[in-house]
Design brief:
alpha+beta, three-stranded antiparallel beta sheet, disordered N terminus, 4 helices
Length: 202
C-alpha cells in the first residue's frame, strides 16, 4: 500500500509492501526544510552537516538503468538474488532484485536531489530513523528511512557518491531469511557492490 507524507510542501511517496510475516519498505528521501533540525534516531554528537564526497563517481549511465548497478555475479554473492526488475521510483527508476523466496533488495539513484545533504536535512521523522553508517567502500553513508522496519527485516542505506547525488540500497526480508535479524548488514553489502560497479564504470 502507499502512504503519502507531506514534508516541506512536497509529498514524500512511501511504498510499503507486506509479504507473509515480513514488511518491506521502499523509501526515497526527498528535500525538506533546512529549518528542521531534530536528530531523531541519530547518534549523540552527530554533526548536522553531511560529509563531503572526496572522490565523486559518475552515475550518469546508471541513473535511469539501476539494474545495471549490480552484475548477476554480484547479486548472487550478495544473497543468492536471481532476478532484477526495473520499476518507477519517486525520483528515478529503481531495480528490485529477488531471491527464490521473494526476499528483496532494491537499488535506486537520486539524481538532482541534493545528495546526502538532503537526507541529513530530513532526519526528523518521528516514525523513522537516521543513523550515520560506516563508510561504504570509502563513501559516506547513513541508515535512514521514514519508517523504522529494522526489527521486521527492513533497512535502507543511503550512500553519497557525489556532493549532489546519492543512491539507496533497501532490503526487505522474510523471517526465514538468515539476514532477517540484521537487514542493515545486507543493505550495506549491497551498497558496497554498487560502489564497486560505479568505480568500474567510471
Amino acid at each position: 500500500m502507499k502512504h503519502l507524507v507531506k514534508a516541506a510542501g512536497a509529498l514524500l511517496a512511501l511504498t510499503v509492501v507486506s509479504a507473509c510475516t515480513a514488511t518491506v519498505a521502499q523509501q526515497t528521501p526527498i528535500a525538506s526544510s533546512p529549518s528542521q533540525s531534530s536528530e531523531t534516531g541519530s547518534a549523540p554528537g552527530t554533526s548536522s552537516a553531511a560529509p563531503q564526497v572526496r572522490s565523486p563517481l559518475d552515475t550518469a549511465k546508471f541513473d535511469q538503468q539501476p539494474c545495471t548497478a549490480l552484475t548477476q555475479a554480484q547479486a548472487t554473492q550478495i544473497a543468492n538474488l536471481i532476478s532484477g526488475q526495473q520499476s518507477a521510483g519517486n525520483v528515478a527508476p529503481v531495480c528490485t532484485w529477488t531471491d527464490a523466496d521473494h526476499n528483496r533488495v532494491t537499488v535506486g539513484f537520486l539524481p538532482g536531489n541534493g545528495g546526502l545533504a538532503t537526507v541529513y536535512k530530513t532526519r526528523d521523522s518521528a516514525s523513522g530513523y537516521f543513523e550515520v553508517a560506516p563508510d561504504v567502500a570509502g563513501y559516506p553513508a547513513v541508515f535512514s528511512a521514514t519508517s523504522d522496519l529494522r526489527k521486521d527485516g527492513g533497512c535502507q542505506v543511503v550512500v553519497g557518491v557525489r556532493d549532489d547525488e546519492a543512491f539507496t540500497a533497501n532490503v526487505g526480508l522474510l523471517q526465514s531469511s538468515p539476514n532477517y535479524s540484521d537487514p542493515c548488514s545486507l543493505a550495506a553489502k549491497t551498497a558496497e557492490a554498487v560502489v564497486t560497479t560505479l568505480k568500474a564504470g567510471a
